[in-house]
Amino acid sequence: MMTADLWRNAALLVLLVLFTLWLIFSGKTPRSRIAQRARQAAARAAVVHAPGAAPAKNMPKDFMKRVAALGERLPVVQSQERAKLATRLASAGFRDGRAVAVVAGFKVMAGTCLALGAIVLGGHLPTLGQYFVFRLLMMAAAFFVGMMLPEYGIGFIVKSRRKAIAAALPDALDLLVICTNAGNSLVVAIRRVSTELRNICPPLAEELTVTADELSVGGESARALNALAERVGLPSMRALVTTLVQSQKYGTAITQALRTLSRTERTMQIVSLEEKAAKLAPKMTLPMMIFIMPTVGLIAAGPAVIQLMTLFGKH
After folding, report:
1. Angle at 97 between CA 217 and CA 194, to 5 degrees
2. Residue range 205-222: average pLDDT?
3. Do the Cβ atoms of 212 and 194 come closer than 8 Å?
């Protein structure tokens, strides 16, 4: 029995190694090399034209280079999806030119690790684990699940950044009002606010810094502001960008518009907190019934039950 399991695991391992080698060496043909260069150029162009292109966060360089090389060689991300992935990575704070390739490399690594885990654990499953076809399907399913894990990780990072930005945006609006009241231009005000928020909300400070750099370059201010709204993806940020664009387009006072928007954001934040507080009581009902009420019942009725048991035990 053990020998049969070993042969099955060895066969699955050989299939996994052959599939990985096929992915790697499929990039050796001239057509594949041309496609690889096209993917690299598309990824660089997508990140350069993506909103807020800037260096990525600090990571182990040698390891990241190897993962990026693996991702550039393997066609696991389609060309039409690379621009969308680059935009999502920019929203998550990763703006390096090889960020898409790094994600592709992590997809392959995660898929391979889960496939190896499925090979090891497949033999311990009762009944179904004895069938080679089931193990093969389990290995393939684990590989595809591992391919999807980096995407979910990126989505989690994007949601965390948006939550942090939404919490600090009213404070940023108040600071923008103060800076514009002091006579600062929009670029100077945004840069000053980003400096003040660097320790309070690093994601928002980073986005504002990128926007200030884009505005300082001398391009279209509307394009840079709309890029900020696209990266952040919050309705409140879109409202701020719309206010700034319209004030620049029609020559209206920015300070009054920002003050009104700041007041609105404060009100919405208070309403949101009140809604969360109102939902707290129904959410606490089930935990109280499961954990607190049985304990209270034991404390209240326990001594009486013990006395009754003692009394009837004597008779």
Report:
1. 45
2. 85
3. yes
Question: Please, which residues have CB within 8 angstroms of residue 16's CB and are 6 or more apart in sequence?
Answer: 112, 115, 116, 119, 139, 143
User: What is the overall mean pLDDT for the chain?
Assistant: 77
**pTM confidence score:** 0.69
pLDDT at 276: 85
Rg of the chain over Cα atoms, rounded to whole angstroms, equals 29
CB 119 within 8 A of CB 13: yes
| Contact present, 72 and 109 (Cβ < 8 Å) | no
- Sign of the CA dihedral 68, 53, 155, 161? positive
**pLDDT value at 190 more than 70:** yes
| Confidence at residue 54, expressed as pLDDT on a 0 to 100 scale | 41
Alpha-carbon gap, residue 75 to 107, rounded angstroms: 11
Sign, CA torsion 256/262/267/271: positive
CB burial of 231-250 (b: ≥16 within 10 Å; e: otherwise) equals bbbeebbbebbebbbebeee
